[in-house]
Amino acid sequence: MNLQRIAAIVAISGAALGGASVIALGVAAYAAGQPEPVPAASAEPATSAGVEPAPTEPPTPPTGVPQPEVADASDERSPGAGAMAADYNPYLEPGDPEYVSLEERAEYLGQDAVVRQCMNDAGFEYLPNLWWINEGPQPSGLDFESSVLWTQALYGPDIYNPGGGCADAGVAAADAARAAGTPLTAPVPPDDPSKPTPRQQSLVFEDAVRECMADAGFEVRYFEWWNPEHQPGDPRVDARMPENLGADEQAAWTAAMWGDAGSAAAYRWEDAGCSGYATHVTGNDNMH
């Protein structure tokens, strides 16, 4: 995986204003809005310092993180194993096609340090963008207006057509340094095996969805967004919706899942159905 591909992937993870913070990459492939941890603020300057070694043992699920429940007989899908397991992070597994090497992470973080300085100079906090473990740069607790201003500083005035913001400044600095033969680098934080993987975080989100929907009288099928066996045959249908529902039942299920929330500054998680509830209780909206 080269840095150009990394940049393209990170660009996918835009800021969903009002409803959710920056959504990290694998999760961005699924529209339900998956959880993102809130990292501690820190600032590492761009440097050529050495890279922290990778752990020798694979990550293990931390205590207290819900594990995939066994699907019932009516659900043919089941928890994945091996590379499809919840405790597997392809970005940290040497040999996986999606693996991001320590050298690539170090160079990306060197570029990200330039972005952070640019954002700080503009008056905005910018957290380390460790997207390979689902930690994004946007701080939590921003109101809608602050979210807009933060995003414009990062991506430019038109957030839906990025250009001219601090992200571009980081790319330009990294390209210039690479052309000069002195690529930007920054220390890579050591991997913490006690942290849940992005997939495990998503299962916590799905647990919250299922609990909310059950309270409302609806079933939700077990779902792993990364597992191709769990994808619906019809991409227009939510893979979590039980099969064989009539039109009225589908409409009621969808209303319970998504609600009828306002958009932009009018968004209220309380009106966003069980998806909004799960996004809120896992700390991934700007209502904290």
Protein traits:
mainly alpha; globular; disordered N terminus
Distance between the termini: 35 Å
Tell me the helix content. Answer: 25-40%
What's the mean pLDDT score?
A: 78
Low-confidence stretches: 3-73
Q: How would you describe the shape?
A: globular
Largest sheet data: none
Q: Which structural class fits the helix and strand makeup?
A: mainly alpha
Our count of domains comes out at 1
Radius of gyration: 20 Å
Number of helices: 8
Order of helices and strands: HHHHHHHH
Report the sheet-strand fraction: under 5%
The tally of strands reads 0
What order do the helices and strands come in, and which of them pair?
Elements: H1 3-12, H2 25-28, H3 102-121, H4 144-155, H5 166-179, H6 198-215, H7 247-258, H8 273-281
Helix pairs in contact: 3-5, 6-8, 7-8
Account of the 3D structure:
The chain is an all-alpha fold and 288 residues long. The chain has one domain. The chain is built from eight helices and no strands. Helix 3 crosses helix 5 (166-179), helix 6 (198-215) packs across helix 8 (273-281) and helix 7 packs parallel to helix 8 (273-281). The longest helix is centred in the middle third of the chain and has 20 residues, at 102-121. It is globular, with a radius of gyration of 20 Å. Residues 37-92 are annotated as: Disordered. Residues 55-65 have a biased composition (Pro residues). Residues 39-54 have a biased composition (Low complexity).
